[in-house]
Structures are given as structure tokens and as C-alpha cells.
Specification:
The chain is an all-alpha fold. It has 13 helices and two strands. The chain is 55% helix and 3% strand. α3 packs across α10.
Length: 312
Amino acid sequence: MRVTRLAGRNARRTLAATLLAVLAAQPALADNAPKDPLERLNRATFAFNDAFDRMLARPVAKAYRAVVPAPARRVVGNFLANLSYPTVMLNDALQAKFSDAGSDALRFVTNTTIGIGGLFDPATKFGLPIHDEDFGQTLGRWGVPPGPYLMLPFLGPSDVRDAPGRVVDHYSGGDYWLTRTHRTYLNSKTTEYGLYALRVVDTRTALLSTDEALKQAFDRYAVIRNAYVTHREYLVRDGNMPEETYDEPEGEAPAGTASPPPTTQAQPESPPPAAEGAAPSAPVPAPEPPKQPPPEAPTAGDATAGATADSR
């Protein structure tokens, strides 16, 4: 899973919800899997990351959830989300979302001051919405395609567009500037790595709810890949996903068009028009005009109609 630059609890919930939705729709997505030309290398990296997750990340996340109360975990999540907001504001501006940039700047100032360094989230109570932007999304808005899917060691899913964007996100994030502007009080490298580890634990804890569902997946690599690609497209499009269209099955008649009833007798290619004033001797079962039977096999019920036609 992507473990860095997720703006707050809403983004983590969206990622978890996307993963669960992809799990539920595995058969439907089987024929629409994203292109993965590096699948062999990606699967090897996934196996390495999965082993690391089983041995360290998941046990630490479970212990963190068991030991740290939910209110304290919420405070940690608020603090980390607030540190990500310089990145969000920068990419708001790069995407020409100036209204969002102003709202996010006000949100950052509110939570940093009234919220005591971002430990609390009064901005949400004041009606300031949460946004999630990063440089990978900005490149997507500029028209840069995602490129092949990539599974990065330790960092998890990515693609050719998002992987370089993480470098920009790192140098624009609050983590970097906090350690660089407070060197007198903080050891920059230790604090930076500590904040990164805390982000990993916080995000992995939020994704513990998907573990049981992932165990039931036939191909966990494909599920995580599809969830990541879907989640990133959702973010780039700001949730405005295109509606799915379905083609009508071949051979199906358009709605409102009745198909002719099947017949057992051969019909003439150009049947003569019915005689004026002549009425059929039996009710017509179909809305089509009555057709004259072949002359070589007349029936008793049609004798009157046949005689009238011959007289003409």
C-alpha cells in the first residue's frame, strides 16, 4: 500500500474502501486489469514486501492498535495529516485550484495554531474541507499518463508517474521543513526517519481492516495493484469517474420492435396485396397483414379468400 503523503484519515479510509471494493469486484475486473509489463519483477518485489509486512509492519501495527487508545491514535493521525498540508497547498496552486489552496492554507494555519501544532482538528468543525493532493496527481492533471505499474521495495505500489513525484512531495512536505528549521532542537535525520516510521505504522494500522478480506483473495498481488490504480485515477479525477457503458448484445432487436412470429411454411417472396373488402375467415394472430398461403396447399378455411383472389 502507499504509505506516504496520504492527507488525513479521509484518504486512508478512501484507500481502504477502494481495496475492499476491488476485492468484491474481482470477477468483473479480471478482463480489465491494468497493463503490467513489469509484472515478473513487480511480483518478486511484492513477495519481498509481503514478507517484511508479515515479519514487522503488521505485528507493529497490531501492537500499536492494541496498546495506544483510539483518541491518542487520532491525535497522531491529525498531526501527520497537518504536516502533509504544505504539499497539498503547493499542488492545489500547481493545478490552478486557487480556491482550494486558500481554504487549505487557512486550514493549515487554524490547525497549527488553535489545534496546537496539528494535534487537534478544529478546522473541520469550522467547515474547512479536507483535500488530498500530491505531485503525482498534479502530473496526472497536466496530462501525464501513469505509465507502467511499479511495486517499489518497502514503499509499495506506485507507477512511473507517481514514483518521481514522491521526491517532490518529500521536499515540499512539513516533515522536511520541520527538521530543517528546528535543527537546534531536533536531530534532522533522526526526526525525519522517526516521522516516516510513524506514518508507516499509522497507515498500516488503518489498513488492518482489509487483512481478512485480502486473505480470501485468489491473487493478492492483482487485487492490490487494481486497488492502487483505481484509487489513483479517482484522486486525479477528483472523484469524477467516467460512467461505464455497456454494448447491446449482437442480434438483439431494438426496444419497441416486435419480431415476426416463426412460420413453418415457406412464404412467397413478394406476396400479392390483399383484395379490397375481403375479410379473413379467422382472427389474425399477429399485427401483420394476412398473407395468402401457397397455391399448391390451400386449406379449407381459406377457400373463400382464395376464390375471391382468383376472380380478380
